[in-house]
Specification:
Order of helices and strands: HHHHHHEEHHHHH
Strand content: under 5%
Shape: flat
Structural class: mainly alpha
Distance between the termini: 45 Å
Number of helices: 11
Length: 265
C-alpha cells in the first residue's frame, strides 16, 4: 500500500509502511473492504459501458475501414490517455468516421472527440456555415443593434454537451503556453476576462472543427498561427497610429514604456 502513495506526499515509503501497522478495529476494516468492493464494481461498470459504446460506434463504420490503420501525418498529435479516457482505441474509430484527425488539435481530448461522435455524428453537414454551427451551440453573441450601435452582445445561455466539451478544451488551451490559439485566448482574457475567453476560444474551435469535418481536411496548424499573427500585427499598427496621433514627447514615451514593462514583469 505504501507504493501506491501519491508522489506529493513528503513522507518516505518506509515511514508510511510502518504507520500502516497496528491494531485495526473490525468496523474500520469492514468499511475499508466495502469501499474497495464499491470501487471495483464502479470500475467494472465503466468498462461495460465502454464496451457498449464501442460496439455502437463500430456498427456505424464499415468493417473494412476499421481494419485499416489511419495514415500518420506530421500534424498528428499523440494524446496521452487520461483517467477519464475510454478503455478502447477511439482515435482510429473517430478518424474513419469523420475522415479527418481531430486529435491533431492540441487541447481536444478523448472525451471531446467521443462527445462529437455520440452526440453530433453526421448532422454537422446540415449546417450551411461554421458560424451557424457555432450559433447552434450557443457560442455566438446575440448582438442587439439599435441605431447602428451594439447595445447588448450577450451569449445565449443553454445546455449543450458539445458546447461544454468545447469549453473544457478551450480552458485547457488557456493553460497551455505554446498553443497556436494561446495569443487569441490571452487577448480576450485581458479585455473581457477568462470566462469570455473560454467561450470565444470554444467558438473558434467549433468553427475549426466544422471546416475539418465538412471538408474532410486536416487541421491547418500553420494557417491558424498565421491568422493569429495577422491579428496581432493589425493590433500593433493600431497602437502605432494612436501613438502618432497623441504626438507624445520622448520623455512621455519613455515613462509610458517603463510603466508597461513594470506591469508586464
Amino acid at each position: 500500500m505504501a507504493s501506491l502513495v501519491d508522489i506529493r506526499v513528503k513522507r518516505s515509503k518506509e515511514e508510511i509502511a510502518q504507520s500502516l501497522h497496528g491494531n485495526w478495529r473490525q468496523e474500520y476494516l469492514f468499511e475499508l473492504k466495502a469501499n474497495l468492493n464499491f470501487y471495483r464494481h464502479y470500475q467494472q461498470a465503466l468498462l461495460d459501458c465502454d464496451q457498449v459504446i464501442e460496439q455502437a460506434l463500430r456498427r456505424s463504420i464499415p468493417a473494412d475501414l476499421i481494419l485499416q490503420s489511419p495514415p500518420k501525418t506530421p500534424e498528428t498529435v499523440k494524446k496521452k490517455s487520461s483517467k477519464n479516457a475510454p478503455s478502447f482505441a477511439i482515435s482510429g474509430l473517430a478518424y474513419h468516421y469523420f475522415k479527418t484527425d481531430l486529435f491533431a488539435i492540441s487541447g481536444v481530448s478523448h472525451s471531446t472527440v467521443l462527445c462529437l461522435l455520440t452526440t453530433l455524428g453526421k448532422d454537422i453537414h446540415k449546417f450551411g456555415s461554421a458560424k451557424s454551427f457555432a450559433s447552434w451551440l450557443r457560442l455566438v453573441p446575440n448582438n442587439k443593434i439599435s441605431g447602428g450601435r451594439i447595445i447588448s452582445h450577450r451569449t445565449p445561455t443553454g445546455k449543450s454537451s458539445i458546447a461544454i466539451a468545447l469549453r473544457q478544451a478551450a480552458n485547457s488551451i488557456g493553460n497551455q503556453v505554446n498553443h497556436e490559439l494561446s495569443p487569441f485566448f490571452k487577448r480576450i482574457a485581458y479585455k473581457k476576462g477568462r470566462v469570455a475567453a473560454i467561450t470565444a476560444t470554444a467558438r473558434k474551435l467549433a468553427m475549426i472543427i466544422w471546416h475539418m469535418l465538412t471538408k474532410e481536411e486536416p487541421y491547418k496548424k500553420a494557417q491558424v498561427k498565421a491568422t493569429v499573427q495577422k491579428t496581432r500585427e493589425a493590433g500593433l499598427r493600431q497602437v502605432q497610429r494612436r501613438l502618432v496621433a497623441l504626438d507624445l514627447s520622448q520623455d512621455e514615451l519613455m515613462r509610458l514604456f517603463a510603466k508597461t514593462s513594470l506591469s508586464v514583469g
